Amino acid sequence: QSVLTQPPSVSGTPGQRVTISCSGKSSNIGSNFVHWYHQVPGTAPKLLVYRNNERPSGVPDRFSGSKYGTSASLAISGLRSEDEADYYCAAWDDSLSDLVFGGGTKLTVL
Amino acid sequence: QIQLVQSGAEVKKPGASVQISCEASGYTFTSYTIHWVRQAPGQRPEWMGWINGGYGTTRYSQTFQGRVTISRDTSVNTSYLEVSGLSSEDTAVYYCARGIMVRGATYYFDFWGQGALVTVSS
Question: In this prediction, what percent of chain B has a pLDDT beyond 90?
Fold first, then answer.
């Protein structure tokens, strides 16, 4: 069981907007930044959003992150087939003194 | 361009040790941390620890403390991960990643190696 809870899967059709949630506690999301990574199976994870809502250069503004209290969300608008991947949230946990990842969410573009 | 290139796949027997390397290029190695993250098949990533490229200081996840050693050689811009006492549960892809500090000892990872599969089997 992951410290950060994500839905196992989400789906959408091309052009749609989907959101992926990440639920935690005061010791992790509640007091630290949340970062998001996506991973195409068989390849390394890639940074998508850092510090809750900032995008690295090269990541389109279709991807946006937000954080409220002990939860965070990743929104993907204008869904494209190439967005199909696994998405992970991550945050430092002060109680565990550990960096924790969510269980991952598989995005399917129908 | 920034690259992290890892050594190849390994097959080990239970109880053995494994060492994986991660060669960095395209940036000043001593100015950043290198982190190690493993991912078992079908599982979420697990953070294992980091090393400061300049000072050589390390910090380990409590999950792996005592069984993992992270080191670096600044002459070849390379970090090494050694895992001892391998069991079948250690079968995973092991990634290195460059860490960017956000606050205190917390980081995010902006560049990742390609991963190294370690298979533990008798």
Answer: 94
Model confidence pLDDT, tens digit, residues B63-98: 998 999 999 999 999 999 999 999 999 999 999 999
DSSP line for A65-93: EEEETTEEEEEE-S--GGG-EEEEEEEEE
d(CA A43, nearest CA chain B) in Å: 7
Judged against a pLDDT cut of 80, whether residue B105 lies above it is answered with: no
Residue of A nearest to B45 (CA): A101
Distance CA B117, CA B122 (A): 16
The answer to whether the Cβ–Cβ distance between B45 and A102 falls below 8 Å is no
CA atoms within 13 A on the CB side of A103: 12
- Of the candidates A44, A96, A101, the beta carbon closest to that of B113 is on A44
